[in-house]
Structures are given as C-alpha cells and as structure tokens.
C-alpha cells in the first residue's frame, strides 16, 4: 500500500478521527522505518541520508522529522520496540510464575517477536557491520532498562523481592534476550524454543556448576587466596 492511497483506505470520519489519525501516524512511521532499514542494508548506515530515506518512503523531509529527530533516533526505534515487547511479556506472565519462569517466558517472547519480523535479518546484519548503527540503537538502552526494571519491580513485589532484584533481572533479561536473538540468527534461524533453552541452559551451567576439585575458587573479598603447599 502506498502512502498516497492511505487517505482512500482510511477516510477521516469525524467520529473516528483520533483512532484513524493514530493508525495513519503508525503507518507513516512504519513506512519510514522500513525504508530506512532497507537502505541501511543496501547502502550502509553512514552512507544513507535523511533525504534518501524520505524519498524511498514517499514522504517529505519535513514529514520525516515529524516522526524521528534524526537518523540515529530512527535506528533507536528498534530498541524502544524491544523494550515494549519485554515489558508486555513480563506483565502477561501468570501471577504464580517464579521470577525464573518469568525470565524464561520473556526471553522466549522476544525471540518469537524478532523471528516474526521480516526485517530482523537485515537489522542484525546492519548492527554487525556498522558501529554507528549499533551506537545509535544502544543510546536508548538505559531508558529501556529502566522500563523493564519497572515491570520486574511489579513482579518482585508479588514474590517478596526488593528493587535490587528487579534491577538485576532487568539487566540479565536484556542481555540474555539479546544473546538468544543473535544465537537464533547466527545458527540459521531455526527452532526458537530450542535456541532459548540452549542459551538459558548455558547460563545455568556457568552460574551453577561447581568448579573441579583441582580448581581454586576466587578468594573472598578481604581474604587472601589459599595457595597449595
């Protein structure tokens, strides 16, 4: 569907204007973002200009800046969407879930959403090849981590945990979800639950496996390390 035909598909009926206007705005925003991702993949992030994006999306330069403050802001849109998916997944978990189950269910939903988006492979390639694009996306990470932390704080209150637990879970979930999406992409975009189980299983192994008897444990804070005689 082209932008010039949008008004024919969604007429401005006065009684439905707010909803229709929001739909139009989302349509244009998505069209700009999709055009940008295609251009970043084809030409490169640094080589693509705002004028290029506006032309490909069929909008004016002025319209571009109505939706995005800059090319970097546009690239960060993916991170904000990521945060929205994470928060919704956390909030939708049943009240009886343990925090571990919430983390697992949330990571699974994020990977499913990423796999379902047709431009995810392009986004992964852009982030891997263009440091500027990666920096732009990560610029909104603190905002997203706070958002996810608030969602976990609501869960932690149900489980009797404190704000520190919420902050730890937010950071851990963001990192694990990112690794799971990258693992799914790099391993041929295969079975999603299997990928999530693989990543969480590796995390559990690293955190819970006891060291071999011949391996020295790290010294506790303030205590000297033991040495063999």
UniProtKB/TrEMBL annotation:
The record places the DNA-binding region at 49-68
Q: Name one GO molecular function term.
A: transcription cis-regulatory region binding
Identification of the protein by name: TetR family transcriptional regulator
The organism of origin for this protein: Paludibaculum fermentans
Q: Which UniProt keywords apply?
A: DNA-binding, Transcription, Transcription regulation
Residue limits of the HTH tetR-type domain?
26-86
This protein's record includes keyword Transcription: yes
Question: Per the record's keyword annotation, is DNA-binding included, yes or no?
Answer: yes
The major lineage groups are:
Bacteria, Pseudomonadati, Acidobacteriota, Terriglobia, Bryobacterales
Q: Which InterPro entries would you find in this protein's record?
A: DNA-bd_HTH_TetR-type_CS (IPR023772), Homeodomain-like_sf (IPR009057), HTH-type_TetR-like_transc_reg (IPR050109), HTH_TetR (IPR001647), MftR_C (IPR041347)
Could you tell me which Pfam families the record lists for this protein? Answer: TetR_C_14, TetR_N
Cited SUPFAM superfamilies: Homeodomain-like
* Record region (Disordered): 210-229
